[in-house]
Amino acid sequence: MATITLEEFVIIRRTALAVPVALAALSLAACSSSGGSPTATDSAGVVAPAENSSTPKTAADVTKTLGAKIATLKPIKTYAAEDDPNHLLGRPNGYSSKTAFGDSRVKADDVEYLKEDAVERGGSVEVFTTEEAAQARMDFIQTVAKGLPAVGEYDYVKGGVLVRVSRFLTPDQAKDYQAALGG
Prior knowledge:
By secondary structure, this protein is of the alpha+beta class.
């Protein structure tokens, strides 16, 4: 069996630590892609969603549409930049709107210690300016979830919309969201 010197161990450790940082940087860079629909930027540098048929105006609109198709969905919260748990709302490379919803099919025992607006209680809707930005966010979430199965979730993208659905729903129940989204 080969022996590793302290210097080799330090190099291996630095490399192992650099990989997650590089992945995060790549995810952030992917969120800032300039492809897709045109956008508008206000005086503070915040990007507003492009006006087109593939990107809805707000996450509240999408949540309302989903709720009309899924009777177990209950809107919980529409976020503002000040209370967004991810600190992405209205910020560079972030989403333009976000909501949280509950789903009565999630067992109360599975989520009793979680906040009322936790994704695990039902899910959330995040609206981005482009499909590429929504896809990059989904890819980032899925990459993190691979290393932490306890935070896994179902994610669906259509246009600039990312619908995040609780892992406590069965795969068939989660597919209701995919179908309601039109994906």
